[in-house]
Amino acid sequence: MTTKKIIPCLDVKDGKVVKGVNFEGMREMGDPVDMAKAYSENGADELVFLDISATTEGRDTMVDVVKKVAEKVSVPFTVGGGIKTLEDISRVLEAGADKVGINSAAVVRPELIAEAAEKFGSERIVAAVDAKLFPDGTWRVMTRGGLHDSGLDAIEWSKKLEELGAGAILPTSVDRDGVKDGYDLKLTKAIVDAVSIPVIASGGCGNAEHIVEVFKETNAAAALAASIFHEDIVSVGEVKALCRERGVEVSED
């Protein structure tokens, strides 16, 4: 049985951790450096740091914040948002990140994934897929912070990303984001079943049961959550305890 990972996500805007609903209505949650340090010390397997307004504002990822966060954590750390070139990736990795997350830039120029995987290694490239369910029953890839419909089918795009060399897929349900009624199990399972690389479930977690559910109902390698940890609804340790109780193998705190 593969050990599942619990990953707190820190969405950052203007130097503060924020959280919204369906990618909108952001409210401040705290300081990214302090929060990242606390999660690292309290059982998080990895962390994801997303500069959520970098792409829509057309600027680079906040490397200074990345450096400060990387200095304080002892677990693997993924950074995404505003990453458009190999130079951007190099800058973020040199700042201390272990991996980078790429979304909009890959839709614009898919070759970026292949080039990045060749230069830095597939294990350092996480392909983010923000997916929205449309009336015809398909999930489409959304870019620019969930605002723009790319027209791409999320399942087929995930397959393509694997072919290009991505080391993991991070699908986030735009419809479920921040709503707290559980992960989109159908979306997650469809992507897990379509690719052979690790899939990180994201979007909609409202309690520890939702994390157990996504591990039981899909073969996701990890579960990403933000609100439940930022709002002290449950701790990483409590999530892991429930997972063990329900027969889901997780790492020690």
UniProtKB/TrEMBL annotation:
Heterodimer of HisH and HisF. One of its GO terms (molecular function) is lyase activity. It comes from the Bacteria. Signal peptide: none annotated. The keyword Cytoplasm applies. One of its GO terms (cellular component) is cytoplasm. Keywords: Amino-acid biosynthesis, Cytoplasm, Histidine biosynthesis, Lyase. IGPS catalyzes the conversion of PRFAR and glutamine to IGP, AICAR and glutamate. The HisF subunit catalyzes the cyclization activity that produces IGP and AICAR from PRFAR using the ammonia provided by the HisH subunit. This is Imidazole glycerol phosphate synthase subunit HisF. PANTHER family: IMIDAZOLE GLYCEROL PHOSPHATE SYNTHASE HISHF (PTHR21235:SF2), IMIDAZOLE GLYCEROL PHOSPHATE SYNTHASE SUBUNIT HISF/H IGP SYNTHASE SUBUNIT HISF/H (PTHR21235). Pathway: Amino-acid biosynthesis; L-histidine biosynthesis; L-histidine from 5-phospho-alpha-D-ribose 1-diphosphate: step 5/9. It holds the Pfam family His_biosynth.
